[in-house]
Design brief:
The protein is built from ten helices and ten strands. It starts with 9 loop residues before the first strand and ends in a 5-residue tail after the last helix. The strands form three sheets. A five-stranded antiparallel beta sheet has the order 1-7-2-5-9. It has a three-stranded antiparallel beta sheet with strand order 4-3-6, with no helix packed on it. Strands 8-10 form a two-stranded antiparallel sheet. By secondary structure, the protein is α+β, with helices and mostly antiparallel strands. Helices cover 42% and strands 20% of the residues.
């Protein structure tokens, strides 16, 4: 896959240098933005669905958006953090790739992080607790701050993000890089149309297969059924809509192809552990301080 770079719209939500002393231990964090870390000194761990990963000085680490993870830290630990929000006009380019968790930092990456922090002092986190910044108000405030910055700072910030992200893109693999081109085509269609109604029979016709054959082939190629894949993408889209808009829950459900709002509530809770109303309420809460 070779996407036009002008389709990749990235914002610096938060950036800064954090020094911890065994107090970086937040659990089950899940956000609509990606995280990139550069470790300066000390050691810590991140627990991801793929397992527990050690964080080492001189290395970069990447956590994609909507990835549930936990931090483990019991000693001094210093790192630069960068929260990246992708403005998705049609679909998420970052979501089209599987990224490595860890890559070795280039010699000048530390200076790039320092520079990004220097020109964006207002994007430094006041506290490391995700509850204090992973909410609707902070997300919208930081996006607004990005829009209001001097143009020269926007250009420089985005350039630095592109450079740091390129370290991971070099080793990333396309999610649609599977053997069957017919399944590739329908995967791309699902990602681009997740907010609309997607019928399995239509996908099967697109792939020139019977419905049963398509479901079997899809599962063989991706490891999950078409319905499971579509549902996962829709829940992620719902989380983003609940955090960034004030649209009624029913409107969010209908916009994602769920005519039965109670069924949408049930599916959302099954995947996130909370109802849409509870999720939005938590996003609207801003912890004092």
């Amino acid at each position: 896959m070779n996407y036009p770079i002008d389709k990749l719209h990235l914002f610096t939500l938060n950036v800064g240098l954090a020094c911890h002393n065994g107090d970086w231990n937040w659990k089950n964090v899940r956000s609509p933005f990606a995280r990139l870390y550069l470790v300066v000194q000390g050691t810590a761990k991140i627990q991801l669905p793929s397992g527990i990963h050690d964080l080492s000085p001189g290395h970069l680490y990447f956590i994609p958006a909507f990835t549930t993870h936990s931090y483990i830290c019991d000693s001094p630990f210093t790192h630069y953090y960068l929260h990246i929000y992708e403005n998705q006009e049609e679909f998420s380019i970052l979501d089209e790739y599987d990224f490595p968790v860890e890559v070795e930092a280039h010699p000048h990456d530390m200076e790039l992080m320092k520079r990004l922090t220097y020109i964006n002092p207002f994007l430094k986190l006041p506290m490391s607790n995700p509850d204090t910044y992973d909410n609707h108000q902070c997300l919208m405030d930081n996006i607004r701050k990005n829009v209001l910055r001097p143009f020269c700072d926007k250009v420089e910030s985005r350039g630095i993000i592109f450079i740091l992200l390129s370290r991971f893109l070099k080793y990333a693999t396309p999610k649609t890089g599977i053997a069957d081109g017919r399944i590739q085509q329908t995967l791309a269609f699902i990602r681009r149309n997740v907010a609309g109604h997607i019928d399995i029979a239509t996908l099967a016709d697109m792939a020139c297969m019977s419905k049963d054959h398509y479901i079997r082939t899809f599962r063989k190629e991706t490891g999950e059924t078409p319905n499971a894949f579509i549902m996962k993408r829709r829940i992620e889209a719902a989380e983003l809509m609940l955090m960034t808009t004030d649209a009624p829950i029913k409107t969010v459900a209908n916009g994602l192809g769920y005519e039965d709002c109670s069924y949408f509530n049930k599916i959302f809770k099954r995947h996130t552990g909370v109802t849409p109303q509870q999720y939005r309420a938590s996003c609207l809460e801003v912890t004092a301080g």
